[in-house]
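Predicting holo structure, uracil bound.
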Amino acid sequence: MNAYSIIDKKKKGIELSENEIMEFIEGYTFGTIPDYQMSAFLMAVYFSGMTDRELKVLTCVMRDTGYIADLSGINGIKVDKHSTGGVGDKTTLVVGPVVAACGGKVAKMSGRGLGFTGGTIDKLESIPGFNTEIDEKTFFDIVNRVGVSVIGQSKDIALADKKMYALRDVTATVDSIPLIASSIMSKKLASGSDRIVLDVTVGSGAFMKDEEHARELASKMVAIGNMAGKKTIAILSNMGVPLGRAVGNNLEVIEAIDTLKGNGPEDFNKIVKTFSSYMLTISDVCKSIGDAEYRVGEAIKSGKALEVFKEMVRLQGGDISYIDDPGKFTKASCIYEVKADKDGFVTSMDTEMIGRISGMLGAGREKLDSVIDGSAGIIVCKKTGDRVENGETLAVLHTNKKEEIPRAEEAYRNAIVIGGSRVEPVPEILGIIE
Ligand code: URA
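Done. Tokens:
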């Protein structure tokens, strides 16, 4: 194989053969192709794109470079949900138990947060004792018993992606539709579920800042999933504002528990209802979205979804007294209110920046091995479309790093725009791609 000629072909926009893609990706993963050639290849893909055929081959080759989960030890149709990332996104914590309470099976492998986005595993680990590294047998037993279990993604999954993603991070090639689609779908296809519901986020707190690109990414991922034999749909959701009110690990777990108790914020309730309903219909548990929405509502109203969540937490070693009494979660030593300095309406928010501020307060990781502070984060009190009066609280910052408050406050003020006239908030759901 001649790595140079493959890079050159891609640079000129010529379609690569299956063999060329396979040899290049395997060569890089197993050490015969160096970082500098892969960097050039990634940049060539960034500018020249990929045909649907190349994209499918790339994704399957990436999937096959690592461990492929076999979930046949779990009864029934397994459904997965995956978000392309956001701020305040605690959806899995709620939809997993809701879907399970309605009869679905969710055997979920999740990731940790990096950069401005949070990760489900970090959130679950803020429940004292919760173990995200249980063995396969326990994982299967829990899903068979309660319908849901969430564990950390196997370190051996899609090894090519692990190396390629790290390189993309430092070569300005993360925001490429074919590279994001193949990265996410290689891991989803390897995770073993039968059906996949993708949450493709759009807006200032998402990788895809505009709807047109988000739709294109969603269509590519749906096509890859279906071509690989896994029924897949994508839901475009608004990430122009943080999801719900809470950003940061303990704060988000508390909001997830409130939502399971029927007291969630309106936008998050809508997201939970939509995602749970599509997960239930795609896995043939419900016949129609209307039927699914009714059952989702009942699962929350009756307390069944909350019971499922508690049972999952208990079986994974977590202390369920925190679910009964979320007041037990550790609070940050410094809780500071950012107040409005004028009257008006919130007209836009830089949601990525709000995620970064949460990280600055201690909730995020700068490096893979950084330790996060579970109690740090932000409660967002005013969102786009809301009326604000001078002196009203815009947000509450939670941190153990008091010295960060002035910088965080200034950044928060810069992240939200207060104007003279009201703008209509963007709906939570922007479209469904089947
Ligand atoms: N998440 C991934 O797993 N990969 C990407 O490329 C972007 C988001």
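The mean pLDDT is 96.
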